[in-house]
Amino acid sequence: MQRLFSSRCGISRAIRHVRYSSNTSKELESRIERALVGGGKDRIEAQHGKGRLTARERIKLLVDEGSFREYDMFVEHSCSNFGMDHPSKKFPGDGVITGHGLINGRRVFVFSQDFTVFGGSLSSMHAAKICKVMDKAVDVGAPLIGLNDSGGARIQEGVDSLGGYADIFLRNVMVSGVIPQISLIMGPCAGGAVYSPAITDFTFMVKDSSHMFVTGPDVVEQVTKEKVTFEELGGAITHTKKSGVAHKAFENDVDALSQMKELIDFLPLNNKEKPPIRHTDDPFNRAIPALNYIIPPSANQPYNMLDVVNAVVDEGDFFEIMPMYAKNIVVGFARMNGRPVGIVGNQPNEKAGCLDINSSVKGARFVRFCDAFNIPLVTFVDVPGFLPGTDQEYGGIIRQGAKLLYAFAEATVPKITVITRKAYGGAYDVMSSKHIRGDVNYAWPSAQIAVMGAEGAVAILYRQKKSALADSDLSDLSTASTMLMSKLQNKMPKILVHGVLDSPSVKALLYESGCLTDEEIANSEATKDSQRSQFISSVLQSKSETKFRELIQFLISRKDQEESQKLLLIFSDSLSKIVYEVEYEDTLCTPYQAAARGFIDDIIEPSNTRKHICEDLKLLENKHQHTHWRKHGNIPL
After folding, report:
1. N or C: which end of the chain has fewer CB within 10 A?
2. How many CB atoms lie within 10 A of CB 483?
3. Which overall architecture, per CATH, does domain 28-264 show?
4. Catalytic: 192?
């Protein structure tokens, strides 16, 4: 009897356990299902209607399939103000999804703000979830990616929300240089919320759907009376072209997430690791014959530094950072024989490659990131100096330019520099020169390393020296002109504006020489009297160097004519100046003086550039550079 009673009790308990388990499983499923829909199906449809993915859809596209592990799915806000304690105001996850996953098999931590829940606004619990995943990321030593889509602070929570922002800001600062931090703005990001992305290493935006600003258009209009749209004030184009707040703009959510995966592949997981090396079929010693002809014959003729970069790096794969901002300097990531490197290069196609305020700050920020995360630096130099002008001086080019100098000098990663053409003045020093601890410094034969360019130097060095033709007898014009022309070395002199050029007899002589056409003569007659000489001068200047030589020879053949003598004397100053420039370039404006003093390690054929860089990176892979102990440096911010 006793046994029967015990048996029945055991069966009863088992039945109750099954019922309990069944009920709890259903409740868990119900809660998970509710968490997965965020703010509800209507709000999800509204999000899709704006061309945006939901927070969960973004994570699914970002990480490897099935690898995401979520934290704190069931967290809810703790606010009771303004009816926020009503059950209808409670949403599992509280507007942000956090966790970790894999990108191409490598660990990353992620938070993705959910605009369908209170517009993604930040509450104290929302902030606590982000802080938790940030702490986990730094404990594990893995990158943090933030997908921002938030209207800002949750007003109902008051100072608790502001405190949450400060908690996030503190962690952004404390882990800076420890793990890579990447912000992807995929919707609004306003008010105090903007300062977290500003502190992170990279900030990216989505065109037409993301906005960043401290104060919105309505407030701007109230305070300043300016009328401005969301896109004009803080859109992706504004921040990637004008302000430099964002590093790149993508076409849509899918494009943005795809390129994030590409970027992560270049980066180490943390500051104690080396960047990941991957196999490449691109031979390290691949010759690039096209580089032997890429530098134009004229020092003032631009070319595209990206052509050099794409030719040298593995498989032409270059992930450019800030391509639309401060275009006079190029920065980005590439690989050399499978090893990730940071590329820095002056861009002759923009402002002749001059350094200015924006390019200095852009370059300095990138160099410091590479140095923090053990990414070697490869620098291509073609810089005529710092951009002159009152705007630059008033804007603080001295202080701002010093940032790039500071960044290169402070960096202890392997630093390889190639001077392709110009390296003038202080800008030569700044661009990772041997003097600021460059490890290997090369120059192409076309390199010009000097205090300044030939034109400026001649104006100083030869200011008291008269023209060679001016000192000649008119009877010796033929000999002097021939001598000067023989030294021009494919250079076209600047044609000085002179009243004689408008003389009918002189114009007739120029027409007879074939240097002026019927149309050009007619256009000169149609020009105002006061501007006619200048017009003819500009027409002559537009002629080829070969055509100018033919003109000189024609004038020499007519040296007995007064008009020929006048023209030869007018051209004398220009011809002499070119000769002096050639003399300066041959004496001081070559790479050989720098090489003779050990400032250049070798002068190499451009076609062998890739081979040299790859071999040097292998040599320097275990580089260790001693630095003095200090709390931190004082960069000129």
Report:
1. N
2. 15
3. Alpha-Beta Complex (3.90)
4. yes
